[in-house]
Amino acid sequence: MVTTSVSSTPTTIEPKQSQARPILIIGCLFFIFGFITWLNSVLIPYLQIACELNNMESYFVAFAFYISYLVMAVPSAWVLKVTGFKKGMSLGLVVMAIGALIFIPAAYTRTYTLFLLGLFVQGTGLAVLQSAANPYITILGPSESAAKRISIMGICNKVAGALAPIILGAIALNDADVLVKKLEVMNPAQKALELNALAERVVVPYLVIIAVLVTLAFIVYKSSLPEIDTDKEDGSVAVGKTNKTSIFQFKSLILGTIAMFLYVGVEVIAGDTIISYGATQGIPFATAKFFTTCTLFAMIAGYLIGIVVIPKFISQEKALQISAVVGVLFTIAAIFSTGVTSVVFISLLGLANALVFPAIWPLAIKGLGRFTKIGSSFLIMALAGGAVLPLLYGALADHWNPQQAYWICVPCYLFVLYYATFGHKSKA
User: Fold this and answer.
1) Taking burial as the number of CB atoms within 10 A of a residue's CB, which of 63, 201, 340, 354 is the most buried?
2) Which pTM does this prediction carry?
3) How would DSSP label each residue in 48-108?
4) CATH label of the domain that carries residue 416
């Protein structure tokens, strides 16, 4: 997912000829966002085996990661006010590296709570990093082409997300199917040894991640990225809606925040559950580890479609309506089919999800005037839907079954459809 904490109509602060290097740096950051975020799709089944977890327990991986957006959205703004945006991006990368470092003792001790702590710290670093990095892509060029730059960043994000499960899955889930069968007949001592060895598989990958994050933090710190004049930005958003005294008077924002919360939840469910779900459909982990990549390639296809058709052929509102309807249809198709066909429909939810975030955001903050920044913070905090809904999915999977648990997505898409049709027009 690409998060954009844009608070106003941006003003270009970079001449065209000098945009390439800053955009390249921000593109690298969006690549990192996607790579770190979608590692969770492998960590869920991997830690379920290594730490002997049930479905609900395994989805605390997503909870620990995404809940940091709710907890850290406002503190991140305070941090950036002190550090500035460029130093804030470097700090975010360093915090992410610390989170990755926590994985090392977690792996050697096979302690699930330490893994979760590492994920929360990584999410905290991402909250800071994204709060700083997202505005840059809107100011590095003309405002009328900002949507195109955001789409390019989205593609960087999703390409990284597509690569992440393949790379980590090749290491962490290598011969996982054989191992799971062996574990069933092992005595406790043998089982502990095998599981310890499995847990230690992530040590080297995360050492590499630490090195990359620290290196990128240094590059960003030494770069010539421009600083954002937030005082000037505050002035530009201070107009409009002066008769309002509270952010809660904007019903379209409140409904948009709920829609964003539900949307992010189903996006994470579609990407992070599909490997485990594929295994329950009798598909080997050797194959299932590619399913999240398929979901993200479907999202990339959605981004490309959006670049071509919006707004030339259809409006953002219409795109959101179509996305919600397609999400309902694909979810129901996945529930009522089996095997590879069912898994394909879950992957295709990536296509349904691609245009939802870019459409909800402008509809939710439209007309907020001087409340735009706090409204944007509401939408950032709504990313916690990625923490809550996968956990509920896991509970339903344990008490029902993993396939029927996907019913949780249907009312979420229906609410998005309501928001696209009526909710965004709601007045206080």
Assistant:
1) 354
2) 0.82
3) HHHTT--HHHHTHHHHHHHHHHHHHHHHHHHHHHHH-HHHHHHHHHHHHHHHHHHHHHHHH
4) 1.20.1250.20
